[in-house]
UniProtKB/TrEMBL annotation:
Chain ranges of the Glutathione S-transferase C-terminal domain: 2-42
Organism classification: Bacteria, Pseudomonadati, Pseudomonadota, Alphaproteobacteria, Hyphomicrobiales
Gene3D superfamilies named among the record's database cross-references: 1.20.1050.10
Protein name according to UniProt: Glutathione S-transferase C-terminal domain-containing protein
InterPro entries the UniProt entry points to: Glutathione-S-Trfase_C_sf (IPR036282), GST_C (IPR004046)
Amino acid sequence: MIEGLAYAFPKAMANRKAEYPALLALHDAVAKRPNIARYLASPRRLAFNEEGIFRHYPELDSTG
């Protein structure tokens, strides 16, 4: 979820990183788990694209 939000709303997420350090640390820790890391590096993982729910929404991506 965090990864998708960072893709869809990069400006907004960058501005809010400091507000949720524990959540972002959990996200990073989970991504480093061996089986999850293998999946994230594999071709099975679908890349973010402009067709799915997690696409970039520049018109909604605010820095405020």
